Amino acid sequence: MAKYKLEYIWLDGYTPVPNLRGKTKIADFDSMPSLEDLPMWGFDGSSTQQAEGGSSDCMLKPVACYPDSTRENGVLVMCEVMMPDMVTPHPSNSRATIIDDEGAWFGFEQEYFLMKDGRPLGFPTSGYPDPQGEYYCGAGYDAVGDIARDIVEEHLDICLDAGINHEGINAEVAKGQWEFQIFGKGSAKAADQIWVARYILQRVCEKYGVSVEYHCKPIKGDWNGSGMHCNFSTQYMRETGGKDYFLALMKQFEVNMEEHIAAYGPDNHMRLTGLHETQSIDTFSWGVADRGASIRVPHSFVKDDAYKGYLEDRRPNSQGDPYAVASRVLKTISEVPTP
Ligand code: ADP
Ligand code: MN
Ligand code: MN
Ligand code: MN
User: Fold this and answer.
1) Probe ligand 1: pick from 172, 181, 233, max atoms within 8 Å of CB?
2) Shortest CA distance to 212 belongs to which of 197, 192, 222?
3) What is the per-residue pLDDT for 312?
4) Is the CB of 313 under 6 A from ligand 1?
5) 109 C-alpha to center of ligand 2: Å?
6) With the C-alpha atoms ordered 321, 190, 70, 48, is the resulting torsion angle positive or negative?
7) Is residue 34 located within the same domain as residue 134?
8) 74 φ, ψ to 5°?
9) Using CB atoms within 10 A as the burial measure, which of 12, 222, 249, 316 is most buried?
């Protein structure tokens, strides 16, 4: 028997953007527990905008777990918030709204800024650094400064230790801006991992006195905003596809444009301007290899006129809830009949 440190992680009830919360439960296990071994737990919902003080209990239902290499016998336990009856999802539980589809695959590209003293890392005390241009995928002190690399590397290693399916990381277009990509098979897999990766990033940053800025347009002016592009496919899109189905799908995305924008993170009008590789917020468009479209269709998708594979919705922003994004995408897909 050993004492395991189980970090139960959940999303609170703040709007429009939930915060990550976590608390540690100590439990005895012979070896690393699996999901089935992890009990439900509770918390005080009146401190997280999820309940009134008079009836404050909310329940935590483990939905995924990951080894935590920063702690001896550590486990990161991603949870859904449930009502006290333990079976009804709490209204803040966006994960519970996702249509379950094992054949759905998602790849999210999470962009973010690292901030110190209220400015992106590398910004001078007053004014601006050199205009953006040479920062994207840059190397050297002038491009990325001195501590950003330590942070992103440490973050990457802890995520890989946890079994999170990172596909890559890169320095982004604005100074102090970075990205990581996570891919997962199953409706909620990548979204779970984005939330846990965000949690790990925030925790890593604590000792550097750095905070993670997820807002989609933290620096006004000619500086890129941050997105969370959502690459998605279903089994039907990958294996059957076809131009007619694709056009019907795009039609339905257009019909549901406003519902998608509502699920894609706050303040997106500040980022979806038609500039900086975006389409404007009130227009829906798709285009092959077009980074100025709402949905970018990869070359691979239209190869040999097959219209098969995955699509990239470029509108979700960096502050978006990946559960809400996956939920909305799968809902629209479900409205389009497959022959
Ligand atoms: P870019 O920055 O050019 O848009 P990235 O390489 O950062 O491209 O991201 C592409 C994303 O597409 C990756 O996250 C990858 O996991 C995802 N992806 C690739 N194939 C599929 C697929 N079949 N279904 C869903 N997502 C996919
Ligand atoms: Mn990318
Ligand atoms: Mn990017
Ligand atoms: Mn992209």
Assistant:
1) 181
2) 197
3) 98
4) no
5) 6
6) positive
7) no
8) -95, 145
9) 316
- Is residue 92 within 8 A of residue 18, CB to CB? The reply is yes
Domain boundary among 70, 92, 114: 92
Contact between 299 and 244 (Cβ < 8 Å): no
74 confidence band (pLDDT: 50, 70, 90): very high
Compute the distance from residue 225 Cα to the ligand 2 centre, in Å.
Answer: 13
For residues 84 and 179, membership in a common domain is answered with: no
Residue 239 domain-assigned?
Answer: yes
Ligand 1 binding pocket includes 310 (Cβ within 6 Å): yes
Q: Count of domains in the chain?
A: 2
Is residue 230 a contact partner of residue 325, using CB atoms and an 8 Å limit? yes
| Residue at which a domain ends, from 45, 65, 92 | 92
Q: pLDDT digits over 184-213, tens only?
A: 999 999 999 999 999 999 999 999 999 999
pLDDT at 54 exceeding the cut of 90 = no
Residue with tokens 């301007």: 273
pLDDT tens for residues 241-275? 999 999 999 999 999 999 999 999 999 999 999 98
- Does position 160 have pLDDT exceeding 90, yes or no? yes
To 5 degrees, how large is the angle CA 195–CA 196–CA 199? 90
Task: Read off the CATH number of the domain in which 62 is found.
Answer: 3.10.20.70
Q: What are the residues whose beta carbon lies below 5 Å from ligand 2 (ion)?
A: 109
Q: Residue 253: which domain range?
A: 105-334
Q: Residue 232: CB within 6 Å of ligand 1? A: yes
Query: Is the CB of 109 inside a 6 Å radius of any atom of ligand 1?
Result: yes
- How sure is the predictor about 55, in pLDDT bands with cuts at 50, 70 and 90? confident
For ligand 1, whether the C-beta of 231 sits within 6 Å is: yes
Phi, psi of 86 (to 5 degrees): 70, -5
Please say if the pLDDT value at position 306 is more than 90: yes
Tell how far the Cα of 172 is from the centroid of ligand 3, in angstroms: 6
Q: Is 257 exposed, middle or buried (0-12, 13-18, 19+ CB in 10 A)?
A: middle
Name the closest-CA residue to atom 22, ligand 1.
Answer: 310
